[in-house]
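Quick log. Single chain, no ligands specified.
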Amino acid sequence: MNRTRVLTGIDLPVAPSCGSMILADDAYAAVADRIHSTFLGMRPIEPGWHRFDRLVPLNTAKHPYGLDYGRYVEELTAEVRELIDLHEPDVIHAQHLGFGLAPALVRAAGRTPVISIAHGTDVIAAAESAQAREALAEVVAGSAAVVAPNSTLAERIDKLTDHRYTSRLAIIPWGIPLGAALVRHRPQENTAGPLNLLHAGRLDANKSTVTAIEALAVSSQQHRLTVIGSGPQEEALRERARQLGVADRVAFAPFMPRRELWRRFDEFDCFVFTTAGLEAFGLVVIEAQAHGLPVAYSNVAGMADTLGHAGTSYAAGDPASLAAAIDELARDVHWRGALIRAGLDNSRRYDIANTAGQLADLTDKVASAALT
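-> predicted structure:
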């Protein structure tokens, strides 16, 4: 069977340093029998990491939103146009609505149809910045289909583009390689008591890791928290733990590749998800569930769709509410066990093979329509 030629990419270094890059690598590897992927990325490139059929390093120097963003997109468009002519894709996948490479791909596409794929940070940026919103609108307008991982993100995109492209929106839930997930082998404790908590993710204001730290200070038990991740809020988080007198119960570890993070899951009793604003999907929560961890999550829009009834929610940004949820899990071992079982069942809904298969089906549909 002839494989559909897809040109895609993310204007970030090619390494497992962010969820978007890992998701893309997983997805195209899962449908390598149906899609031939040419991936555009930036240096540095981690040797031996990716599984794309062809990797093409971009030469244009990156500029984020700001004074040089327009010039960056123009220069990137010229480079991408040459690559499209060279590789002759059947379909273009524009990752990250509005980030530099996406509008460059749309502008350079010519008669090649475009499917754009939202990742969350792009939609957050568009809600906060007129420049980012204009870029997102341009990408959506130039796309035959727009993929979002859940209805919440799709609705945000629809609103940001004044409902002009509603019919183009397609929801394809994200996933993980479930076959590689190793469910914890350590037996669950059958007694109540303080929990060993885990938070993993980028340390920025939207992730609201501070909520977990402040929850320790008002909880009724001496829980411990490990924060795995890197970002601009790290020093402020360390200082907040010192101010509250819980620094001895909060450990920090830098961002780590997924395989290493997965090995660490077995050390913990509960995963805390603390995002206070928009969350694209919460894929790390599914990873935690697949490894047998109960989840306490903030009730931001979309997370209930991702988790169903397989987690215990609390009021986003409210440390007292999170502390109450954690304390209940610590006291009620039967409730904790029920969430573990429900989480394992829930995680099985999100296999990357399903994500990739739906994306491949949509790609074939768009490619066929372009030929008629």
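The longest strand covers residues 4-14.
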